Amino acid sequence: MISLDMFEHVSLMTLDSLQKCVFSHNSNCQEKMSDYISAIIELSALVVRRQYRLHHYIDFIYYLTEDGRRFRQACDTVHHFTTEVIQERRQELCRQGAEAWLKSKQDKTLDFIDVLLLARDEDGKELTDEDIRAEADTFMFEGHDTTSSGLSWMLFNMAKYPEYQEKCREEIQEVLKGREVEELEWDDLTQLPFTTMCIKESLRQFPPVTLISRRCTEDIKLPDGRIIPKGIICLVSIYGTHYNPTVWPDSKVYNPYRFDPDTPQQRSPLAFVPFSAGPRNCIGQSFAMAEMRVVVALTLLRSRRGQGPAQRELPLPLSPEGIGYAPQSPGSDPGGPVDSVEQTVGCRRRPLRQGPASWGSDSALWGPDPDP
Ligand code: HEM
Prior knowledge:
mainly alpha; CATH 1.10.630.10; 3-stranded antiparallel beta sheet; two-stranded antiparallel sheet; 7% strand; binds protoporphyrin IX containing FE; monooxygenase activity; oxidoreductase activity, acting on paired donors, with incorporation or reduction of molecular oxygen; heme binding; oxidoreductase
């Protein structure tokens, strides 16, 4: 039995797969760290750390600090990589013309940059390089930390509940029965109902994004008659919603059967919102669910998870009672509040660690604060 902290490995895997899907780039970062991947990891950590220092909110002060300088440098590295890919690809597109270019890709999968280069708005206007860069960078950031948090907690639950782990393993073995290569096809993903139930229950118990905020664009009447006035910014606790005892009995218990598709559910579709809801919900949720199913299935197929001593002591990371939630009764109207809001910010959570983790050579980012 080998004991290891999964989170770093899983994060590198999600970065690896995103870089492949967004840029068609084989980063191989699970074997060897690249400047681009190190910069993304560093930026993700710096953004979180900046939130905890009031004086760092002022750009002028922030960019004078060590963190601010590192932030600028890492941004340059990320922008440089993305710009180079976009420019090369656009030159090739201009040289060949759209039709020939598309034809040359017929047997290949279009990546995210290809899709954006070909995109046109209602007036037939294309996206600028700057627009494409912003979209690609957003996907890299939104897509890696969230999925790796979701996957790490899922693997944690598999280790904690060996009976569920075994049931998932049997399910995937059944899907792959008689095949020579242990690879999943797209259609196989619908043949993993129990694994999907386990992933969903894990996302309920440990939602990677715990909190979102919305500004009300009209007065909102709550079920108890109270009104949230137009213009108010509300924090919506995804974590609290997932522990609402009215909707989720024994909410602290990991029970995948809550998501059994064969049992009719009385609860509102807004009782389970790991990917948020409404017009600004997660655009990558199908990608994330597909990736999680593939990773969980192949990981369980190739290895068995058990609990290390540290894991056995791990408490629930947040107390649902401590952060409050809006009571939501089963069947409550999902329409109004979500449509009457606009997006402000989100926040996400990583699995609890027993000590400072080391990210390659840069443990300082997770360890003691060098720039208080
Ligand atoms: C388990 C994995 C994931 C979770 C739990 C998650 C969760 C979320 C949540 C809660 C939001 C909404 C934030 C808000 O309402 O303020 C969001 C937005 C977003 N997510 Fe995800 N996400 C995941 C994976 C991904 C992936 C893989 C991608 C891209 C490949 C992605 C791209 C985005 C983008 C671009 C937005 C912003 C959408 C907008 O503002 O219109 N996410 N995500």
